[in-house]
Backbone:
């Protein structure tokens, strides 16, 4: 039997809603963060809560506020108090929602998808929180789409305005997301594993809702918890390819990259596999 246009429209709306519902944080988080007795399950990891002193929850992204609320619900009132759960999550201004223990911070205005001073302020607070953690603490990081513009901490040698400008120039020249991230990771204290390197917790478990095809971890929000080879030479090559290496607008960035290239070195992948674990809990396939 042939379906009429109004029925086809209704079917399409049901299909779309089912897809969106499948990746809602209040559905995804309980499936990947739960408490059973004295055990806490995070992704594929399990932690004996009797050995965990404090729990910090940080993150960024358009869905990260709803993820934070779902985390608080999954942990429960008693555990929130017992483990002194605290944290900071950067979200767009129109994604602010009430929370109990985790502070949400408007890292940028609604509809402005580029780094802003508000994001820098919030990211500094996140770095302060994770760096204060100790080996008996657990840090849970929440990452969702839009995190690149919300987790913002340029290296001291580069201003926020210069970082925004180089992104604009590369985009206008036709650089793809991988090339953009190659440059942005090198001039950030938080991207490209910077958050993981700053974290003093015994374990850092990251829950990710991916909006990138194929889910390459280093590309989702520029991989703040993904350790790997930090190579300034790669960023130099990108600027050279797009004839920006001698552009006056990015001269301080070029100078910084040239100074950093002699220190390029890979990070210990063994440590990456044990202390820092990333879980994609929702994506386009979901």
Residues:
């Amino acid at each position: 039997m042939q379906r009429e246009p109004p029925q086809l429209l209704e079917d399409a709306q049901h299909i779309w809603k089912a897809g969106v519902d499948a990746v809602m944080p209040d559905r995804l988080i309980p499936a990947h963060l739960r408490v059973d007795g004295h055990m806490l399950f995070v992704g594929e990891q399990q932690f004996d809560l009797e050995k965990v002193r404090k729990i910090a929850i940080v993150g960024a992204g358009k869905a990260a506020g709803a993820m934070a609320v779902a985390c608080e619900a999954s942990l429960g009132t008693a555990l929130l108090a017992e483990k002194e759960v605290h944290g900071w999550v950067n979200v767009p201004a129109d994604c602010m929602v009430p929370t109990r223990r985790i502070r949400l911070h408007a890292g940028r205005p609604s509809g402005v998808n580029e780094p802003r001073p508000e994001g820098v302020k919030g990211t500094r607070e996140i770095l302060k929180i994770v760096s204060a953690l100790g080996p008996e603490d657990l840090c849970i990081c929440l990452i969702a789409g839009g995190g690149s513009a919300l987790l913002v901490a340029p290296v001291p040698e580069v201003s926020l305005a210069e970082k925004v400008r180089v992104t604009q120039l590369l985009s206008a020249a036709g650089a793809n997301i991988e090339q953009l991230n190659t440059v942005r990771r090198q001039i950030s204290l938080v991207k490209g594993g910077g958050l993981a390197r700053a974290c003093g917790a015994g374990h850092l478990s990251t829950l990710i809702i991916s909006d990138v095809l194929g889910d390459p971890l280093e590309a989702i929000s520029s991989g703040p918890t993904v350790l790997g080879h930090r190579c300034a030479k790669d960023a130099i090559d990108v600027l050279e390819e797009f004839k920006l290496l001698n552009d006056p607008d990015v001269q301080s960035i070029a100078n910084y990259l040239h100074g950093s290239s002699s220190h390029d070195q890979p990070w210990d992948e063994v440590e990456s596999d044990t202390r820092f674990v990333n879980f994609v809990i929702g994506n386009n396939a979901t």
In short: Strands lie at 33-36, 39-42, 45-48, 55-60, 86-92, 102-108, 138-143, 203-209, 276-282. The longest strand covers residues 86-92. The CA atoms of residues 54 and 83 lie 5 Å apart.
